[in-house]
Amino acid sequence: LTSMGEPSMDPTTSSPDSTAQQDSLFSMMDVFLISLITGLFTYWFFFRKKKEEVPELPKMQSVAAPVRDSSFIEKMKKTGRNIVVFYGSQTGTAEEFANRLSKDAHRYGLRGMAADPEEYDLSDLSRLSEIDKSLAVFCMATYGEGDPTDNAQDFYDWLQEADADLSGLRFAVFGLGNKTYEHFNAMGKYVDKRLEELGAQRIFELGLGDDDGNLEEDFITWREQFWPAVCEHFGVEATGEESSIRQYELVVHTDVNMNRVYTGEMGRLKSYENQKPPFDAKNPFLAQVTENRKLNEGGERHLMHLELDISNSKIRYESGDHVAVYPANDSSLVNQIGEILGTDLDTVMSLNNLDEESNKKHPFPCPTSYRTALTYYLDITNPPRTNVLYELAQYATDAGEQERLRKMASSAAEGKALYLSWVVEARRNILAILQDMPSLRPPIDHLCELLPRLQARYYSIASSSKVHPNSIHICAVTVEYETKTGRLNKGVATNWLKNKVPDQNGSSSLVPMYVRKSQFRLPFKPSTPVIMIGPGTGIAPFIGFIQERAWLKQQGKEVGQTVLYYGCRHEHEDYLYREELARFQKEGVLTQLNVAFSRDQAEKVYVQHLLKKNKEGVWKLIDEGMAHIYVCGDARNMARDVQNTFYEIVSEFGSMSQPQAVDYVKKLMTKGRYSLDVWS
């Protein structure tokens, strides 16, 4: 404002003209000032109003709504539940056990719900005591090398960092593991220990299920002691209600738009027709099989090499990663189930959850046909668990068959033994059970509700993305065996893959797949030596490793010693990738190629025998060369025998006692210098 009035302050310029100008200026200024003041007042008024409204924002529920949805406490209160069973599941078994425990609760006058920890805020565990007779149960599977399952990763991270007070929480844990693995039931043990450290009260001892033995029996044994402990703790009694309770209701669609019907998709409807990245477990990529060749020259088995085209998928992978494929069940098995149950398999239906509050609206994508469900969504080849037999028993019209089914589903020693021999050891799948029990004819919709989901199969990738950026290679052996009942059982995925014929178009060559990241990685420095041990199809990731080392060498990088210990039955029968390995050795990429032919001589020779034979050189590479060791293949025997061999080598050449040698190898594992990619 002072700058605008400056001309009137100079007396030497005063004149009638200037006075008139001044009057004019002031009148203009008056208008301007009034306008400005009015504007400022208006601006202030509205600005002040907005400022006053700001504190009101937190009251708007739309902002907080998602948080409310993720509260399992609010859900339990709303639906009158007092037991929550969380599951950490990779293959569906832990989820299945969690569902069984939550269904059990009604027999004791309690109400349970199974919950995926990925969908909820687990810090709410500290509030569970707000609910009367509340209990949290955790069915936690251990995956890989003592890791949490994908859906339990966030929960695991929270447990590690949490300093919450869980003193009001009552809990119990059942772990699912496999004793052939180094870190048996690590996740179950950790959750049990950590919850206690945070002040929670354990109301029943930790259960440790072993999939190498009889996981189902381990679970039943734990469960039959768990519920009496719950009853004692809360002062409740079993109601005696043993009746079957359906979780889903059947809706048959007689007039439905077929464009709204699932035909095998894992997540989004029509996702196979309209593919959109990113691709994962719920949105697999349909890869074209460009090569499918038999690797072995003879013998009864069929070993194969497949190449999947991932061009334009934006899928990235590293050597050592796994490729997951979603297989389909054999159509002849599906048709036989339809025939034996007298069902039109092309009936379009939905199974809708009777619990409207449940996050799981259907057991598999719906609406769909029975044929699609039995082909793509349900496991019809594994022996069914005891809960399936228990639920099916009511449909057996023959009293003897009904009693037999109920006995196998019971916790009595005789029943467990019968289930083990008649179902597990005889490898009877659901079709075999229906065939061997002529009076058992359940409604197909209830059968579909009870059967577990068909799971993706994982294979170690047998290629390097540096050499094959648009292709993923698989090395596999078809599974086929005769059961004690004389039936021929075939592996779902390997036989399905075997029939994938490379062609220009058509679904016969398409494989739904995605990549799962792994910790099985080459050393950061190419100059670091590597010792790879992989008999049979365990050679798969090492083909990728060697390809990558060859590529690095071509780039002018200094590549350390690359040593392979491979094993097969016969040199002229099942020596996989023979030509490729010979070429890599000739080019100097593969420094050492040690092959054990186990059955070409009277005494069997395995990879661990060759390691012992070269023990001094092996120790030198580990001790002086700081070599990284990789083991891939069978966990039950091979991986264990190889590890014991390393204990011996370390003990002898490192001048250590047996316990010191064991500790030395364990430290190599901790440092990432001894890696395993094993299966049982």
UniProtKB/TrEMBL annotation:
A single GO cellular-component term on record: cytosol
Residues covered by the Flavodoxin-like domain: 83-227
Listed Low complexity bias regions: 7-20
Keyword terms: Endoplasmic reticulum, FAD, Flavoprotein, FMN, Membrane, NADP, Oxidoreductase, Transmembrane, Transmembrane helix
GO BP annotations listed: response to hormone
Top-level taxon in the UniProt lineage: Eukaryota
Uppermost EC category: oxidoreductase
GO molecular function: flavin adenine dinucleotide binding; FMN binding; NADPH-hemoprotein reductase activity
One Pfam assignment: Flavodoxin_1
Gene3D superfamilies named in the record: 3.40.50.360, NADPH-cytochrome p450 Reductase, Chain A, domain 3, Nucleotide-binding domain of ferredoxin-NADP reductase (FNR) module, Translation factors
FAD-binding FR-type domain boundaries: 282-523
Cofactors: FMN; FAD
Annotated segments matching region Disordered: 1-20
Transmembrane regions: 25-46
EC number(s) recorded for this UniProt protein: 1.6.2.4
HAMAP family noted in UniProt: NCPR
Name by which UniProt lists this protein: NADPH--hemoprotein reductase
The species this protein was found in: Oriolus oriolus (Eurasian golden oriole)
Gene name of the encoded protein: Por
